[in-house]
Amino acid sequence: MASTVHRVRFTREELAAAAGKLLPDVIAPGLDVLLCGINPGLWSAATGHHFARPGNRFWPALHRSGFTPRQLRPDEQGTLPEYGLGITNLAARATARADELTREELTEGGRVLRAKVAEYAPAWLAVLGVTAYRVAFGTSTAKVGPQESTLDRTRLWILPNPSGLNAHFTLDALAEEFTRLRRAAAASTPPAAQAPGRASGDSKRAARSRRS
Question: How far is CA 54 from CA 49, 93, 114, 168, 172, in A?
Fold first, then answer.
């Protein structure tokens, strides 16, 4: 079977076959930030990697904001916990477009997400999509940025949807929002609270500077 790691194109039949597939989380206890997408796209389901569709700005924004020292490829998603990061989704079912999900699926996804946060206790939960957040958390007034409500000790943030279809945010604007979150997370996560063997992106860069 051909590897999908470096695939740049799928046939319509291959993508259709990925509909409904589930994509495992990239998650660990005590992360600095758990990033929550709306649901996997067909390209991600076909590859097994989050935010894998060409044109999605997630990985470039993650790097430009300073969360990662270089732009990771989707197939390198397993390294994210080394930077205190993880990925999950509100809805597990893969679709061609997020608007194919029902309100019931997003509401149920919010319930599952709350349980996941209670189990893994990230310092921050960042949902990538304001409309999906409003449905999942039952609020009509939430806006991009930090939220007043929390899930126990986990603080909440809304990031814009990084899909290339989101014309309201350029890559530069998206990276600025990711940067706001990174700075807030760095300010609220003391070094002593970091897991052994893991440093934040800022700490790693500082360590590299001290060695150079």
Answer: 12, 20, 30, 18, 17
Please write the tens of the pLDDT for every residue from 163-198: 877 778 899 999 999 999 999 999 986 554 444 334
| CA distance linking residue 186 with residue 152, whole number of Å | 19
Task: Give residue-wise pLDDT tens across range 23-59.
Answer: 899 999 999 999 999 998 888 878 889 999 888 999 9
Q: Residues 180-185: contacts with CB within 8 Å, 24+ apart?
A: 180/145, 181/33, 181/65, 181/124, 181/126, 181/157, 182/33, 182/65, 182/66, 182/67, 184/124, 184/146, 184/157, 185/32, 185/33, 185/84, 185/123, 185/124
Is a pLDDT exceeding 50 seen at residue 3?
no
> Can 50 be counted among the known catalytic residues?
yes
Q: For residue 177, what is the enclosing H or E element?
A: helix 171-188
pLDDT bracket for residue 94 (50, 70, 90): confident
- According to the model, what pLDDT value does residue 208 have? 29
Beta strands in the chain (DSSP E): 33-37, 85-89, 124-128, 145-151, 154-159
Catalytic residue among 6, 49, 50, 168: 50
| Residue 89 among the catalytic residues | no
Q: Which helix (H) or strand (E) is 140 found in, with range?
A: none
Which residues 6+ apart lie within 8 Å of 59 measured at CB? 51, 71, 72, 73, 74
